[in-house]
Amino acid sequence: MRSLIPLIAGAALVATGAAQAAPREAPEAKLAKMIEGRVAGEPVDCINLRNVRSSRIIDDTAIVYDAGGTLYVNRPTAGRESLDQHDTLVTKTHSTQLCSIDVVQLYDTGSRMNSGTVFLGKFIPHKRVKTRQRD
């Protein structure tokens, strides 16, 4: 039994070292990977909520709204440092659109407490580049 203890301790150290060695992807790099192969369009003030399939928070950087073929990147004008990928977005709108004048509350899913507020900026649409196939 004594011979197993060093093996277990050694395995735990290797696992801990591997977990610490894996670098966390920088937020800007994560965003760049999401919009890779897409072209940015002119910023818009509002997006139709009925077209939004999902949203994703990029820590301290942006909120990406997936509207089918278009990803809308919103870099909030204030409160950006509160963005955390593990939070839930709560938006109270008074129309069928989400606009740059809207305020979004962030809630920590673990504690179920408000973890911040962000003031949305303009939405930058990113559409896939259509490639032509040659015969």
Describe the structure.
- The protein is α+β, with helices and mostly antiparallel strands and 135 residues long.
- It has one domain.
- Helix content is 19%, strand content 36%.
- It contains 2 helices and 10 strands; from the N terminus they run ααββββββββββ.
- It has helices at 4-21, 27-34, and strands at 38-40, 46-48, 54-58, 62-67, 70-74, 87-91, 97-99, 103-108, 113-119, 123-128.
- The strands form 3 sheets. It has a 5-stranded antiparallel β-sheet with strand order 1-10-5-4-3. Strands 6-8-9 form a 3-stranded antiparallel β-sheet, with no helix packed on it. A two-stranded antiparallel ribbon has the order 2-7.
- The radius of gyration is 20 Å and the shape is globular.
- The N and C termini lie far apart (69 Å).
- Mean pLDDT is 85; it is low at 1-19.
- Keywords: Signal.
- Residues 1-21 form the signal peptide.
Topology, please?
Blueprint: H1 4-21, H2 27-34, E1 38-40, E2 46-48, E3 54-58, E4 62-67, E5 70-74, E6 87-91, E7 97-99, E8 103-108, E9 113-119, E10 123-128
Antiparallel strand pairs: 1-10, 2-7, 3-4, 4-5, 5-10, 6-8, 8-9
Signal peptide: 1-21
Keywords: Signal
